[in-house]
Amino acid sequence: MSTSPSPLLTLTTDFGTRDAYVAAMKAVILRIAPETRMVNVTHEISPQDVMEAAFVLRDAAFLFPPGTVHLVVVDPGVGTERRPVAVRKGAHRFVGPDNGLFPLLFDGEPPDEGVVLDRPAFWRTPEPSATFHGRDIFAPAAAHLASGRPLADLGRPLDALTPLHWALPIVDGRGLQGWVVHVDRFGNCITNIPRAAFEAARKGRPVKLFAGNTILRTIHRTYAEVARGEPVALFGSNDYLEIAVHGGNASELLGIRKGAPVNLVFL
Predict the structure, then answer these.
(1) What angle do CA 165, 259, 41 make, to 5 degrees?
(2) What is the four-CA torsion angle of 24, 35, 152, 101, rounded to 10 degrees?
(3) Which helix (H) or strand (E) holds 140?
């Protein structure tokens, strides 16, 4: 006899793991939807960094099965007039603050459906904390969705999301300038330069790359194409240009931090 799979819910936050914030949200979810399977995408987003959250989440969110609920709490505006929302994009539903993160995640496309979470019956308490909407509004909403409640039950229809746009690389006839938008746990410095934009600007020409304290003259395919301890530029699994060190931490060894410029000159 077959049984329906348990509902799936992912969590992405900037809360870290040393405090009880994530556990509190999970506790609220389990009280409402005890059969929910929860997957941590990450709780190590840099504090209040909405763009980093979107950049990381877009590499994972739509790989999950249809019907997955994604709880995303990176909320520098908690307690202000920014709206708590739940939206649907395709077969995936997302819950979190209306602070530009979802437009970034959807590459500027509008959601297929959305509501403002303005019905206290679906909150943890009618008087939510002004500093922890993740526990009191977002987690309960995500749990209700995971338990099968329609999006429309949770609030009034959403007119539009607050927009936020990716910083695009700058291109001219001689080169291209981008920025490091994320440094992963290995110290790899991931830029905002997609492969397609790089190839279109390069037009087959040799390239010289300037980043931090290093100059690179080749774009490689894998980390191991250079000697251990040597810097390397390549396109990672998300097809964005990154600077790494084979077996080392490029951010530390090359003096590259998030927001640092990366300049490519075509010869």
Answers:
(1) 70
(2) 50
(3) helix 139-146
Please indicate, yes or no, whether the overall pTM of this predicted structure exceeds 0.90.
Answer: yes
Amino acid at residue number 32 = I
Cα diameter, the chain: 66
CA–CA distance, 182 with 190 (Å, rounded to integer) = 5
Structure tokens at 112: 């297929």
Return d(Cα 69, Cα 92) in angstroms, integer.
6
Number of Cα atoms under 13 Å in the Cβ half of residue 165: 3
| Predicted pLDDT of residue 1 | 39
- The domain ranges of the chain are 8-157, 170-266
The Cα angle at residue 14 between residues 117 and 16, in degrees rounded to 5 = 130
Q: Residue 150 has what pLDDT?
A: 97
Cβ-Cβ contacts under 8 Å for 22 (sequence gap 6 or more):
11, 13, 15, 40, 43
CATH of segment(s) 8-157:
3.40.50.10790
* Superfamily of chain region 170-266: Bacterial fluorinating enzyme like (2.40.30.90)
